[in-house]
Amino acid sequence: KTQNKTQNTKQDRKQKGLLLSLSLSMFSSWFGGAAVEPVWKYDDLPSPTTDTEFLEVLAGARRQGVDDLEGVGTWVEFINSEGIVCEEKIVADAGTVTIIRSRGEIPCSAERLFHLVWDAPFDQMKVIGKELMAFNTVRMINDNCKIIHSQYQAPMPVSNREFVTLRGVETDPKLFVFGTSINYQPIPFTQGFERGVSRMAYRITPITESSCLFETVDQADPKGWIPPIIVNAFKSKAHDRIKNLRLNLSN
To answer: What share of the chain is helix, strand, coil (3-state, %, to 5)?
Structure first.
């Protein structure tokens, strides 16, 4: 009997200890215990940390950008007006992912347009699109490579979008800006925003001293819920961007 009583006492103590541990864990979670690690990455995106890794990712984005600007793949024209041409790349099982290529003449020097899309302050960049809410350089890898955190206002009832993009630039033989989304731990997902994924390439070719050809490729996966009507509306953004640039950069 004494042995059974001892075993029962040990079991009671073990159960009480377990209950106390669970209670403390719940209390800690309710009243600010261990911090929950912020969400900052998608498993299918690169997470570079060293300068070498950043430049390797950027080189891949450059190759994709050149291929798309040169028309590799199947493209279907859906806008051709006012000297602006927009095409969509046909990709099997693309879902909400869209790849749009556009081109049009801008009435300003190639250098002026280049500085606008590469290193202009935020208030000047707003001419590209009124939905732009923030556009911040969070890290310079070198003079020709940087990490950008951008945020965009989406129409109701869709959540606003944000992107963390690794961008690079070349100035010879043509002015070329390109980039792709990455995971970057210092910039976790922002509450109230959906973290989208994108890839872009802009090529600027002088025509005269006061005009240039602007060619763009934009690939976007907005993530999260978004109605088809908004996905379709995104396709016209490239056309609207060139029109806005013409309006605001006319010499």
So the answer is: 35, 35, 35
